[in-house]
Design a protein that fits this description.
Elements (H helix, E strand, L loop, with lengths): L4 H9 L3 E4 L14 E4 L22 H15 L7 E5 L4 H10 L9 H13 L5 E4 L10
Parallel strand pairs: 3-4
Antiparallel strand pairs: 1-2
Helix pairs in contact: 2-4
């Protein structure tokens, strides 16, 4: 499937995009945190989801340029922490990230690598935060 840059950006943003507290609160209390929640389809498409998106090669030069531009736009939010969909307690996440920072890890097509690692590196972060919890959650089809 061949998507335009705009369509890829929309696909990356549509599932869940919430920007809270965009304007600075004018109160005498502590500043409210700004939170950006970003949901994407699985760029590497592991075919393990209820609904799988068939997309072209995320490692192709065209997609890499689009992902780089997307990460650059996210950079403007200036997150102080980046949480990713990786199992809580998984130490390999930050081991891979440290290898990436040292130039010893090649990014895979996975969204954690493509978006999380790139954004964290651009912002000078030393680690990412795994937040995925695997559990049985009730699901009702609509």
């Amino acid at each position: 499937m061949n998507f335009s840059r705009l369509k890829l950006t929309v696909m990356l943003l549509l599932p869940v995009l919430s920007l809270l507290g965009h304007s600075q609160a004018q109160s005498s209390g502590p500043a409210k945190p700004h939170v950006l929640v970003l949901g994407t389809f699985h760029l590497a498409n592991h075919n393990k989801d209820m609904f799988n998106v068939q997309a072209d090669d995320m490692l192709a030069p065209k997609r890499q340029a689009e992902i780089a531009a997307f990460v650059e736009s996210l950079r403007g939010f200036q997150p102080t922490k980046i949480a990713v969909e990786v199992a809580v307690g998984q130490v390999e996440l930050n081991q891979k990230y440290q290898q990436y920072l040292a130039g010893k890890y090649t990014l895979t097509a996975d969204e954690v690598d493509q978006i999380g690692f790139r954004l964290a590196k651009e912002l000078g972060h030393t680690q990412l935060y795994p937040i995925n919890v695997m559990a049985d959650f009730p699901f009702e089809a609509v």
